Design the sequence.
């Protein structure tokens, strides 16, 4: 008897497990149909795609028992796909049927006026009563959403479904269901387990809710909610930790200047600079820093295993341990990058990129970030011509296989471009992507294009940043993390030209990275480009600028930030 979790084997259910442990609750996993009989409350933290969730439940013989469990009147809490399975169907997987409790269909967001997936912290509007604080929901809070499909709120067109609606959210000009509730059933499209203290409050309130509260009064009539001029999505501030072994073999957070992470020592006469390099810079312990940034209000955290291209996941057990420990401390999204590729363990065992990603997801990562492998995959796809000029994937790349199994929102591509300066009269193959420096800036009278690199900048590749960005979007990446080797660690500000160039070419969310030297640089990047998030490392690690300060400055400048 007790609290049970339904896990069908894909994605990060570890986050929810960690949230419950943090709140002091014990739980068990549903493994067989019989386990449903023992459950007195059930949470389904669904991730991945609608089709893969329903098909996996069916093939394990768990779909019908789930239906019966809900019909029995015992409490059910579905998160994301766990909420969507309550509906009839989804255009994501047209041949698959949901439980059909809510007579409506889940549809894809329109990406004409916004990027898709909807990824980030958004506000909600409550129905029935503006005060659901006893249920943990507050209109003054923001909650973390990550999804491409949604159930629109349409009380005129579908009044029966509208009666289920508990709160709505707006993304672009679309108003959709943020949470649903009727009797014993509760569902949220957002992820409370990734929504910091605001989300933990909802989980805690649901777990301690009395029977009488669940059979609450019938809802009041539903009226349409025309979209407001602006949605409530906030710009995300991401703290990134580059992690590697120092010379003593301990994993430390380090930080380079233009990707060089060693202390500078002057080269003695007769030696080459590489021999004169100092120790790997040590800016702290990854788990302690992650906990500090979470407490300071970071909207998202990244851990980059920056020497991973030398290792197999088996050898990277310490990194997995870091991810596990960090995930127990932070309740905002956690991205893990470095070494997501096909590898061979020291004993000769082959491991696919999908398996490597799976290890990180099970350790507590919400997204994996792929860099070098993304470059090679786009080079391969360009060898398979297509009408749009981008090329065709063959279904085997890390991006494709991981997006297929875990959903595209779980796949970030990290791009490490470098400027290649050319004559102002350049008319070569990248002429359409050439940037000319603005008058009055240090780039005046210069022209350049952006070339992609692999292995943390060590390998330059015959691929431009636009070719890579368009390629990975087509292969199924859910987000682009755009670094700049030229700006990394310089504190000169984000490379606005680079960010605008990529923004023009893709419709998936983007994180601007590299070069932040002050809070004002975040204002600049959000005012001059249309990116969803901005990332910094050095200024946060060295304590030069705090995350709270960045958010204060953004709010004063009229940029929507989560407080
Ligand atoms: O190729 O899939 O194994 O992934 C390797 C990952 O490790 C890539 O995402 C790559 O960017 C990263 N990486 C590899 N070598 C380095 C290095 O520094 N020597 N770090 C490295 C990249 C850039 C950002 C940094 C921002 C902001 N560091 O992570 O956080 O530039 O810094 P700033 O705010 O201090 O300017 P694969």
Sequence:
């Amino acid at each position: 008897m007790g609290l049970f979790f339904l896990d069908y084997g894909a994605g990060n259910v570890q986050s929810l497990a960690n949230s419950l442990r943090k709140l002091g609750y014990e739980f068990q996993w549903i493994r067989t149909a019989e386990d449903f009989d023992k459950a007195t409350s059930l949470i389904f933290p669904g991730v991945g795609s609608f089709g893969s969730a329903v098909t996996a439940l069916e093939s394990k013989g768990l779909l019908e028992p789930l239906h019966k469990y809900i019909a029995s009147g015992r409490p059910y809490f579905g998160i994301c796909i766990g909420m969507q399975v309550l509906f009839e169907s989804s255009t994501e997987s047209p041949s698959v049927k949901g439980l059909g409790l809510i007579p409506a269909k889940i549809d894809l967001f329109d990406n004409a006026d916004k990027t898709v997936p909807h990824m980030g912290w958004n506000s909600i509007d409550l129905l029935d009563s503006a005060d659901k604080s006893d249920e943990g929901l507050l209109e003054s809070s923001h909650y973390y959403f990550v999804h491409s499909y949604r159930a629109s709120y349409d009380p005129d067109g579908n009044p029966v479904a509208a009666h289920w609606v508990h709160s709505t959210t707006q993304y672009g000009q679309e108003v959709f269901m943020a949470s649903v509730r009727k009797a014993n059933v509760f569902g949220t499209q957002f992820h409370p387990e990734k929504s910091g203290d605001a989300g933990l409050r909802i989980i805690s309130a649901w777990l301690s809710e009395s029977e009488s509260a669940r059979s609450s009064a019938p809802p009041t009539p539903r009226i349409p909610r025309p979209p407001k001029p602006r949605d409530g999505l906030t710009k995300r501030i991401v703290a990134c930790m580059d992690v590697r072994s120092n010379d003593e073999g301990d994993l430390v957070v380090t930080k380079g200047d233009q990707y060089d992470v060693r202390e500078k020592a002057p080269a003695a006469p007769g030696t080459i600079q590489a021999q004169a390099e100092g120790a790997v810079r040590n800016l702290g312990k990854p788990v302690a820093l992650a906990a500090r940034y979470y407490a300071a209000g970071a909207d998202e955290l990244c851990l980059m295993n920056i020497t991973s291209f030398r290792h197999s996941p088996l050898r990277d057990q310490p990194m997995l341990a870091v991810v596990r420990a960090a995930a127990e401390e932070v309740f905002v999204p956690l991205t893990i990058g470095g070494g997501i590729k096909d590898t061979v363990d020291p004993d000769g065992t082959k491991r696919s990129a999908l398996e490597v990603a799976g290890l990180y997801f099970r350790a507590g990562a919400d997204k994996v970030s792929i860099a070098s492998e993304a470059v090679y995959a786009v080079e391969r796809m360009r060898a398979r011509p297509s009408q749009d000029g981008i090329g065709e994937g063959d279904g085997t790349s890390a991006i494709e296989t991981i997006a297929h199994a875990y959903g595209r929102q779980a796949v970030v591509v990290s791009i490490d471009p470098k400027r290649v300066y050319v004559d102002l009269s350049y008319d070569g193959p990248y002429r359409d992507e050439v940037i000319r420096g603005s008058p009055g800036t240090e780039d005046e009278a210069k022209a350049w294009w952006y070339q992609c690199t692999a292995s943390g900048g060590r390998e330059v590749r015959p691929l431009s940043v636009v070719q890579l960005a368009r390629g990975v979007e087509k292969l199924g990446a859910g987000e682009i993390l755009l670094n700049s080797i030229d700006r990394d660690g310089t504190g000169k500000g984000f490379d606005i030209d680079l960010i605008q160039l990529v923004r023009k070419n893709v419709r998936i969310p983007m994180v601007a990275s590299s070069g932040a030297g002050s809070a004002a640089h975040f204002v600049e990047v959000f005012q001059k480009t249309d990116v969803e998030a901005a990332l910094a490392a050095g200024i946060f690690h060295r304590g030069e600028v705090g995350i709270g300060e960045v958010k204060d400055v953004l709010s004063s400048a009229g940029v929507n930030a989560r407080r």
